[in-house]
């Protein structure tokens, strides 16, 4: 089986360089690469040129329209019958294509997803953010790589899908944030089998500052309510936990004004994160940074969820977005 690797790019030439370099080291060369420049100011055309002799690459530019629409435009140019979507800030382990090929040969599914990990070369903040996105003590859950295959929801930073299924669904929808979850939900609702391939992991850099990370997860909280309005069964009790965390921690801080023991609740949580993150990363520095990352994630997602819940479900207002124009700043 051959694959068409699709990568939407927005102002990330350095990351694309690392991504393409990792693709040249694949043990199986059964793929093409499509780089879609989504209205970037800092283009990656010069970077792509470095790899045209070692990789089959198609590069093109288009006006900015967001990752979902850009993936659709790029997928329309694919030559092969199975698409693989990566985010531009991913680095791909050399065995990736080999593992995916063998997994699909043994158990073919119309769509799959894989976990993400951090490289030792990542910055302390990137390692901390990676921890917060994969930890039991935040909202990481199955993103860390659990082996459940039942109705797995692939995320588009590391997602494969047959071109037939992609076309049948009309590709990604028009949502600016949460478009990958919407796509996964539509796959399952239309009867397509999905799977997690634990060995098909990628090294995902994510955001490089807590400010960028807050904007990302805040929009994810908003997206969860938008997804609920399109897919009512998608909203689960677990999605309320970050909001409950926000309320509980603010209440604890308020109580501590009168009873200092109220500070024990946030202190206990921070201690659990510190111990767990330090053990998993073998670094106290990463452990300390993971406290900030975990609080940023839960407060960002939780407050975005609360605002969207109030505006969309209580006040019945229309869809809205935050940080859209300055998402990467």
From TrEMBL:
Keyword terms of this UniProt record: Glycosyltransferase, Membrane, Transferase, Transmembrane, Transmembrane helix
Record InterPro entries: Glyco_trans_2-like, Glycosyltransf_2, Nucleotide-diphossugar_trans
This protein's record includes keyword Thylakoid: no
Gene3D superfamilies: Spore Coat Polysaccharide Biosynthesis Protein SpsA, Chain A
Residue runs in coiled coils: none
Annotated Glycosyltransferase 2-like domain residues: 4-168
EC number(s) recorded for this UniProt protein: 2.4.-.-
GO MF annotation list: glycosyltransferase activity
Domain of life: Bacteria
TM regions (residue ranges): 244-269, 289-310
Protein's UniProt name: Putative glycosyltransferase HI_1696
Upper lineage: Bacteria, Pseudomonadati, Bacteroidota, Bacteroidia, Bacteroidales
